[in-house]
Every structure is written in structure tokens, then in C-alpha cells.
Amino acid sequence: MNFQKNVSLKNYCNYKIGGPARLFTEVSSVKELKDVLFSVRQNKGLKIFILGEGTNLLISDKGFDGLVIHNKIGGIKHQGSILTAGSGVLVSDLLDFCIENSLSGLEWAGGLPGTVGGAVRGNAGAFGGETKDSVLEVRSLNITTLQEKTRTNSECNFAYRNSIFKSGEGAEEFVTSVTFSLKSGKKEEIQKAIQEKIEYRNNRHPMDYPNIGSIFKNVPFENLPANLQEEFRQYVKNDPFPVMPTAKLIFLAGLKGKIIGGAMVSDKHTNFIINFDNARAEDVGQLIALEKQVVKDKFGIILEEEIICLGS
Predict the structure, then answer these.
(1) Rounded to an integer, what distance in angstroms lies between the CA atom of residue 260 and that of residue 276?
(2) 3.50.50.60, 3.40.1230.10, 3.40.50.300, 3.30.43.10: which CATH number matches 4-71?
(3) What does the pLDDT read at residue 43?
(4) CATH code of domain 76-200
(5) Residue from 214, 266, 280, 291 carrying the catalytic annotation
(6) How confident is the model at residue 277, as a pLDDT?
């Protein structure tokens, strides 16, 4: 089994931030995954982290004192409008496949970074669509027992930026593949819709700096304090239900362009914290804490992180 030692994780994270992993390996099939997990099962104290493309991941400056398994399980196939993809497939590659095969239903994901497995785990969404809208079933492997399991859409307990694989009994499982139920469409229309989303992201998001997307979840409108609901009603959008954009809260709190160390609250989209000058995870963490405190003090709203933090 090929385990690398003290591998710098900043090269595997969009942020270009993070210390080393004590152990690191890559898997490109379920068999390789099982072999890796079987080889370390005697080491019961070994912490294991499943790494996709690192697009919503903040890695500690100290790194990770355990085993990082880099998910490269690929493969895309379809029968009619039923499509199955390996969890390590990039969302961008999945969308290219959908275009080539005239499969509609995932256009909302144009420009979405990361892997299929990550999108399912966090029920990624944008432009009113969510991953759960098209998922038929998800296959996974328990990293301790090596038991394989298949769940239907309803059994995945999808919620806003959440699923059973993120904060439920499936949190100890490695998503291996996902089957989507799509529909036939026109290639040109699908391609145009996806490209529109990509261009929107490029125009509105700070893509010229390392970032990990939206730091915080948007705030459900119903969770806003009663005295603010009327005041903020003009900012509410459906994504996929009425939410107050956190970017607007951060802007109204006067935090646009705030800098700590090499990290900055983006002046292009304030729910992004960019790495503009060799930022450390500590810099980002301090900015996150500051944003949460200021928004709470000013509006009485407690922000909830959307990103994943990986410590030592």
C-alpha cells in the first residue's frame, strides 16, 4: 500500500492554505479504497479524512495528524436519462457529459467547483437548484466496517447544505458513487444554460484569488429576528426557499474589504474570504470569528459556516 508521509495539503486545497498530512494516499476505485481501509483497520486511533477537490475546505496551518484519502474514483455512465457517476468525478466533467449526451436537470450547477461526492455530502445548490433534486440513489462504504450501503434519495436526509453523510449516521461513510435521474433535453439549450451560470459566477465571484466559496450559509428568512424581517424583505431571494443572503448581512455590517494577515473579506462578494497574500488558516479563522461576532452584535443573527474545517 502506497502511503506518503508529511504531504503538504495546501496543494490539494483551493485556498492554497494548510499544513501537512501525516499520511496521504489516493484511491481511484472502490477496491483500492477497501484495500487502504483494510490495511489501517488495526490502527484504531488513526484519524481518517476523505478529501475531494478541497473547494470548501479550510485546513489548519498545523495540518492533519492522520490519514488523508484523496478521492479520485471516476467513471460516468448512463442508460437513457439515468446517470451514474463516481464520487471523485468533478462536477464540471459531469456537466460536460450531460451536454454531450443531452441530459438536462443539472444546469443550475454550471461553474460549481468540487466533486460529485462533495456535492452530495453538502447538498450543494445554487440558482434555486440543489443536488438532492436529481439524486436517485447514493452508494457508500463505511470506513470502519467496510460495509457497503445504498440509500434512496429520501434515506439521504437531504436538507439545506446538509445530508446524512455530513451530519448523520452516514458521516462515517465514504460516498463511492451517485445515480441521478435526469431528463432528455436539447444539447444547445443545456450548454447555454450551463454557460450562463459559469459566466455569472465569473462576473460576481472573486475567481482571481484562491478561495473556498461561500464561507457561511444563507439565513432562512423565517429565522430573522421579527424586527428585521420587514427591513430586509427587499434583499430576500429563493435559494431554494426564502433566504437572506449572508453576503448582504456582512456588507451591511461594514466588513467589506476587512483584512487580517493575508486574508480579506472580498469586496466583490462579501461571503467570500480570499487568500490575497499568502494567508494562513489562522488569518481566515480570525476573520470568520470577527464576522460572526459583528453580525451577531449588529443584527442578532448567528451565522453558520458552510465550509469544512480540518484541524491537526
Answers:
(1) 11
(2) 3.30.43.10
(3) 85
(4) 3.30.465.10
(5) 214
(6) 97
Q: What pLDDT is stored for residue 6 in this prediction?
A: 97
CATH 3.30.465.10 residue ranges for the chain: 76-200
Q: What is the pLDDT of residue 131?
A: 98
Instruction: Indicate the pLDDT class of residue 312, thresholds 50, 70 and 90.
Output: low
For residue 192, what pLDDT is reported? 98
Catalytic residue among 53, 107, 291, 306: 306
Among residues 180, 178, 177, the alpha carbon closest in space to that of 73 is found at: 177
Distance (Å, whole) CA 37 – CA 250: 42
> Is residue 212 within 8 Å of residue 14, measured between CB atoms?
yes
CA–CA dist 252, 20 (Å, integer) = 37
How confident is the model over 232-255, as pLDDT tens digits?
Answer: 999 999 888 999 999 999 999 999
The verdict on whether 130 is a catalytic residue reads: no
Cα of 56 vs its chain's centroid, Å: 5
199 is an active site residue? no
CATH of domain 206-310: 3.90.78.10
Residue 241 corresponds to which amino acid?
A: F
Strands 64-71, 48-51: parallel, antiparallel or unpaired by DSSP?
A: parallel
Determine whether 214 is an active site residue: yes
Confidence band of 44 (pLDDT split at 50, 70, 90): confident
Which residue is catalytic, options 121, 139, 161, 201?
A: 161
φ and ψ of 40, to 5 deg: -110, 5
pLDDT of residue 42: 84
